[in-house]
Amino acid sequence: MRIVGYIEHPVFKITIMHMNHRYALKFEHHGLEQTYKIRASDHFKNAEDVKNAVSTEILDSVKRHFRSMELTMLEMLTVEGTTEEEEFEEII
Q1: What angle do CA 3, 6, 11 make, to 5 degrees?
Q2: Which of 16, 31, 53, 92 has the highest CB neighbour count under 10 A?
Q3: Does residue 16 sit in helix, strand or coil?
Q4: H-only helix segments in the chain
Q5: What separation in angstroms does the CA of 68 have from each of 45, 51, 78, 87?
Q6: What is the pTM of this model?
């Protein structure tokens, strides 16, 4: 897979990759990522076509998914009854 472009955004890192007649559009934010794979077609012939598909509505949807992912991550990190002492083995 090779990087064929980036989309500038003030909050997300957005990378466009290409491999085997597919584009991958990867959004990264606070250690989380979302990747959307798009088959090359008449509508998506190059990285510029992929860039043009990223509308305000798409970005809003990506933001909502990140919020949901962050809540899930928070739930995983705050498992009831877990303390720091229980997380590490004793080293002698």
Answers
A1: 130
A2: 16
A3: strand
A4: 47-53, 56-77, 84-87
A5: 32, 24, 16, 26
A6: 0.80
User: Which helix (H) or strand (E) segment is 27 a member of?
Assistant: strand 22-29
59, burial (CB in 10 Å: exposed 0-12, middle 13-18, buried 19+):
middle
The whole-angstrom separation of Cα 36 and Cα 49 is 14
H/E stretch holding 3 reads strand 2-7
Q: Which residues of 14-35 are buried (b: 16+ CB within 10 A; e: fewer)?
A: bbbbbeeeebbbbbebeeeebe
**CA–centroid distance for 18 within its chain:** 16
Quick: pLDDT tens for 29-82.
999 999 999 999 999 999 999 999 999 999 999 999 999 999 999 998 887 655
Q: In the chain, where are the structural domains located?
A: 2-79
DSSP 82: -
> What are the beta bridge partners of residue 19?
22
